[in-house]
Amino acid sequence: DIKVAAVGVYSGSPHTLSTGAGATTVFSDNKLLKLQDTSANTPKWSEAGTAQPVTSFKSVGNVSDANFIGWGMWTTGQKEDPSVLSLANVHYVAGRPTAQAELSSLFYTGVANYTLLGNTAPTQNGVAGTLNSATFSVNFQTGYAITVAINTSFGNFTDSASGSTPSFNGTYIQGMFVGTNAAYAGLTYAKNPGAGMITGAVVFKK
After folding, report:
1. Is residue 162 pLDDT above 90, yes or no?
2. Residue 122: which of 51, 46, 34, 197 has the closest Cα?
3. What phi and psi, each to the nearest 5 degrees, are found at residue 154?
4. Three-state secondary structure call for residue 22
5. 25 has which bridge partners?
6. How deeply is 205 buried, as exposed, middle or buried, from its count of CB atoms within 10 A (0-12, 13-18, 19+)?
7. pLDDT (tens digit, 9 = 90+) per residue, 117-144?
8. DSSP line for 136-188
9. For a Cys-Cys bond, which of 29, 48, 93, 131 suits 186, CB 3.0-4.6 Å?
10. Domain boundaries in the chain?
């Protein structure tokens, strides 16, 4: 029951994935190695090329924990869907999603402001940059009215979305609430300000 959101770049365009129920994930020391989402044409993503060291991947807890959330970046990823593509700079977040019953219990509780807990170094055109800051807030009273602001060394952007299945516009933001009562939130993002696609992953704590 681990959920994954991921983004990689192929020929300058973002390729994204947000797994549903029934996904299979394989980890080693809390580092995601590969996944297969059986709910949507069985796309398979895996690390390819030179593997990044386990020490470069971060997490809260272990994969077996109820509040587990992890994040990292593959320099090269392989996507099979069913054709095979080589993706550059695949950023991901993976975690045990908050149960729907717990999310529903948060309705009408008002605004929750999350603080930045961890992140991957944003990348653009294969170059690693810096995440200067990131903010995330959600108004549960209006049913997931979410606002996100990302500030990187490559450029800055904000976006917002609302509804039971929030959809962002122009930033390819995907993610999840994780843990008891949505204790954490993790997301991946992609945005092209004109000089190339910026991609990365961020994790927040309530």
Report:
1. no
2. 197
3. -95, -20
4. coil
5. 35
6. middle
7. 999 999 999 999 999 999 999 998 877 7
8. EEEEGGGS-EEEEEEEETTEEEEEEE-SSS---SSS--EEEEESGGG-EEEEE
9. 93
10. 3-205
